[in-house]
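Record type: ASSEMBLY
Status: queued
Input:
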Amino acid sequence: MTRDGESRTPIDARIDTPGREGLTGTAPASVYRPLRDPEQVTTAPDGRPMEGQPAWRTDFPIDWPQDAYVERREFMKFMVLTSGAFALGQLWIAGQNWWRRRHGQPEQMRIASLDDIAVGETRTFAYPTEHDPCVLIRPAADVLLAYNQKCTHLSCAVIPRVADGVIRCPCHEGLFDLSSGRPLAGPPRRPLIRITLRLQGRDIYATGVEERTT
Amino acid sequence: MAKPADLHFFIDPNRCIGCQACVQACSECDTHRGESMIHLEFVDRAQSTQTVPVVCMHCEQPTCAEVCPADAIKRTADGIVQSARKPRCIACGNCVLACPFGVPEVYEDRQIMMKCDMCYDRSSVGKKPMCATVCPSQALFFGTLEQIEQLRPMSMPVNRFRFGGQTIATRVAMMMPRDPIGRRPLVDVTDAMLERPRQRAIRLTPASADPFAEVQV
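Status: finished
Output:
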């Protein structure tokens, strides 16, 4: 099979036939001759062949076919590096989970007194650090809820609407269920981070952070 | 799809009447909204009303693509030098300075170079570029070589231009008066810039039959 599509001519078996000098098989010499790439249509301004041109001319080809051409080695490099990056990302997530589990829950902290918050009211606090704004909600006399105030979509501050039974994010009209923190409408997909609470006498303590995915 | 290989673009500056129809038609296109990619240039504004339509000549070795540092100007296999590729163009203006025909233009407001691509959306499906369809004097012609030879027996298409030391072969041809000696046709642009216009008598031979009978417009 010839590469340039020319038809095979009957081969003279003698070894010194023109066209197959030095070849012992039945293939004509043109099979082994380096041929011009059929997609190589560029002519350099000086008219010399592309082999004699500076390297940048082949690195930055003018013609679309060469520009869109992806070498096998280039493609493999891309595949290996990309899948390597994905694998590293999985390891990073696993490492983070392990680190979080090892550290356990943050220390508990007194956040308010039951006398500070009336039924149907809300109150903000920061837990576990001062950079984690949270909201404490008392929808009924014997129910206390606390969530991290960051919306799980783009971290806007969510606003509880106790009368409607929802928590609303004003940025993109995200809605969460007040009692569970699960997303009801809008762009958020994950529930709000819940703060576990403990009532000791009249004091409300935050005891931990519950991150959920569903 | 690609431009049919037998269809070529011919510019006949002698026939240009400066009506701006090509400019208006070009600027109506949606692929470069509101901007005309064809320029109508005056040859010598003080002396003459003669105008020349300037479209991309689609060089065999496009200087604009040679100088592009962002690798944004590409040519398709049918020889059409495409407009700048949007994600790559950095609006540096190298192509504007390099193009010997003065075709590319940088649009500073949207940070991109845009140039004539022979209406690739039309010519790639075998239609005429917009300017060639509207030109009333057929100064812009898109068709086969046989058609133009039949229509302009006194002229010949020339697609080689010399700018000082640089000789450029183009896909778009200019119609030149037929050379009686039959020299190798070439336009020496820098030489022609210094040339004074000669007083010439134009011989007009009435056509025996309707030369446009075969032409699809």
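Annotation: Helices of chain A lie at 55-59, 64-68, 72-103.
Annotation: Chain A has a mean pLDDT of 84.
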